[in-house]
Amino acid sequence: MSLELNKIAAAVLTGGVVAMASGFVADLLVSPHAPEEPVYTVATKEGSGGGSGGSGGSGGEEQAPDLATLLANASASEGESGVRACQACHSFEEGGANKVGPHLFNVVGREIASVDGFGYSSALKGKEGEWTYKKLDAWLENPSGWASGTSMSYPGIKDAEKRADVILYLREQSNNPPPLPEPEQQSADASGSDEGANGEQASDSSGDTQSGDSGSGDSGAGETQSAKADASGGGSGGGSELEQQIASADPSAGKSAVAVCSACHSFEKGGPNKVGPNLYNVLNHKIASHDGFNYSDALKSKEGEWNLEKMDAWLENPNEFASGNRMTYPGVKDAQKRHNIIAYMLQQSENAGGN
After folding, report:
1. What segments bear the compositional bias annotation Low complexity (predicted)?
2. For a designed S-S bond to 123, which of 106, 150, 298, 307 qualifies (C-beta 3.0 to 4.6 A apart)?
3. pTM of the predicted model as reported, rounded to 2 decimal places
4. Separation of alpha carbons 155 and 354, rounded Å
5. Contacts of residue 294, Cβ cutoff 8 Å, sequence gap at least 6
């Protein structure tokens, strides 16, 4: 028995020695070492800084438009609808009374917490300076976050576009509001684009116009006479009332309004097609006819030319004018802004002199 046990022990010992020797040999042959940096890295996105008064991180890869761009595309009429619930606590008309909250006429550019006869919270009294567009945006987004301890319990407006509509409405309720900020080209690039394989979308490319650029309507009143000449000479097809409205519009304000569209459209003679078609000479020319641009079937099916009436309808509601087009922008709801844009587009045409 002892001989059998010795054989078994010898076999086990031999197996262990062989295993150890194999490990040493493997180390010598392979010489593995850990890399200083991991081979596979996990892609992460940098959170956006929240831009204009804190809009939080953008959920996608695109940056949220800056406040100036949002204001340029805002609608004061939508903003008026947005503040209806606020009328229980605030008045907005000139000479309006203080209620639970102070009157808000002339609030844009006014010193913070400065309305006579209203008892502000210490949180607002501690804020310095005027109600700038940026401060109003931050306040409207999160009142208690911007002025901790404020007595206003309203949770704020989380939608940046709705805040811009409200701010634009507040701006209209002012005798002498400060000028709107200029949109940044970078934000135009971020907001303009990547929607369909054929190109026509986001900013308003599809038809041949730029509805996505609702326009600030805030630049000076220059070139009105030129717009009148253009409207009377080249604005075929729109009713006489519409022609008169466009003739009295401000093309310089329209030019400011479409500044954010330059990421997707060119406006100068001979300009290239981009995400959307070149828009020079678009008025009084056949719909969906610009050479080299691939239009949606919805626009290809439209007959006739871009006259004033059709352009106004397209800018107001692209999906209603051409159901099924690829442009997702809801349109320019403010009639005056549409007319300013059309007046500018009339200038960007061969017969701009009104021949």
Report:
1. 201-213
2. 150
3. 0.41
4. 53
5. 198, 199, 200
